[in-house]
Amino acid sequence: MRVLLKITDIIDVEVLQRIQDSFSDATGLAAVTVDYKGNPITEYSNFSEYCNCVRKDSNNRDCCYQSDAHGGIESARSGKPSIYICHGGLVDLAVPIMVKGNYLGAIMAGQVKIDEAEMKRLPFGTSHELIDFSKNPEIKELYDKTLKTTLTQVRAAADLLYTIANYLVEKQMIHIIQEELHNKNLELMEEVKLRSEVEASLKEADLKALQAQINPHFLFNVLNTIGRLALLEGADKTQEMIYAFSDMMRYTLKKEKNNVVTLKEEMEHVQNYLSIQKMRLGNRLNYLVEVDEMAEDILCPFMTVQPFVENAIIHAIEPNAKGGEVRITAEILKEIVILKIADDGKGIPNDRIHKILDGTYEADGREKNTGIGINNANKRLMYYYGVDYGVEIKSELEKGTEITIKIPRKSLAGRGL
C-alpha cells in the first residue's frame, strides 16, 4: 500500500522556521509555509501591518486565503515559483514543495509593492476585485507604508526560496532512501536468520523430536483411561480408543521420512486425537471438525494443526470444570486455504501470544512443551510459504482464542521436502 508523504515528513519544521525568519529579516518580505491544503505549518514571519488590518474583516480574510490557495495551485501546476497580485493590491509569491511530482505544500511570501508598470505584467491571484481603500484612511496609510521593491528582487527572492526548498527536500529524501535501504537489509537479515533456524530444526534429530512431541502428560492420561475402561466395562470403547491411539502412532511414525501430508490425513489425525480426549473428558469436551472437500487433497506440512488443538485442550478445556468446545474448520478462499482452531476458553494475554509465536515464552511442565510445538509449527509454515503465511492468534480474555493458519493451494515441491 502506498503511503502518502506529508510536508512534515520531508522538512524539519523548526529548521524551516529559522530559515523563513532569516529570509524575511534579510528581504523584508512576509513569509509562511503551508501544507497542500493551505494550512500553515510555520508561524508567520514579518507579516505586514496592512495585511493584518485588511484581514480583520472576515470577507477580506477569505479573499486572502483564496488568493494564497490560487498561488499555491499555480506553482504546483508549473512546478516553479508563481508570482501574482493579491486582491489587496500587493505582490505575493508561492514556491512549491514537490517530491517526485507530488505537491506537498508551498512557501508563501511577499506582501510588497512594485512599480505600477511592472504590476501590469503580473497575473491576478484571485477573481475578486482589488480592495478599494480610498474611503478608509487607516488602510490607505498602511498600504502607502508597505515595503516597495522591484520585480527583479521579488523574482530573486522566489528563486532563493525555491533553491532552499529543493535542497531541504533532496537532503531529506536521501536520508529516507538510506533508511529504507537499511530497513530492507534488516528484513533480509531476519529472513536469512529465520531460514537458517528452520533448516537447522529440520535436521533428522530435530524432526524426530517434533514428530514424537505428543505430550507425556497426554500419553499418561491415555494409558490410565484405557486401564480404567478395560476394568469397568466391555471391550467396545476400549477397542475404539486403542484403534484411535494406534492410528495416531502409525501416522506419526510413517512420516519419519516424509514431511508432507494431505490436509485430509492431517485432519484424520486430529480427529483421532479428539476422539481419545472425548473419551477421557466425557461431556466436558465438545468438538466440531468441518473440512471443505475441495481442500482435502491439498498438501501441508506434517503436524500443522495438532499442536494448536492440543493447546486448546490443555488451556481451554481441562482447566474449566464445565469443559468447553473446540472447533476446527478448513475452507478455500480463492487461492488460499484458511484453517481455524477456535475454543471458548479463558483466552490468552496479548504479551503471552507474542512470546509463544517468537519462541520466548517459558513455563513449567507441559505448557512449555505446547509452546515449543506452536512455535515450531509457525516457523515451518513461514519457511515453506514465506513470512506472510505464519500463524495468527486472536484471543479475548474469558471468551476464547482463535488460531488462523493460511496455506496457499500451490505445491510444496521445491522447499526441501
UniProtKB/TrEMBL annotation:
One Pfam family, short name: His_kinase
PROSITE patterns according to UniProt = HIS_KIN (PS50109)
Signal sequence, start to end: none
Q: Which reaction does it catalyse?
A: ATP + protein L-histidine = ADP + protein N-phospho-L-histidine
- Can you supply one Gene Ontology CC term for this chain's record? membrane
Q: Which GO terms describe its molecular function?
A: phosphorelay sensor kinase activity
Superkingdom of source: Bacteria
| Keyword field | Kinase, Transferase, Two-component regulatory system
> Can the keyword Transferase be found in this entry's annotation?
yes
Where do the Histidine kinase domain residues begin and end?
305-411
Which EC number applies? 2.7.13.3
- Check the record and name the InterPro entries matching this protein: Bact_2-comp_sensor_kinase, HATPase_C_sf, HATPase_dom, His_kinase_dom, PocR_dom, Sig_transdc_His_kin-like_C, Sig_transdc_His_kin_internal
* Keyword Transit peptide among UniProt keywords: no
Protein name, per record = histidine kinase
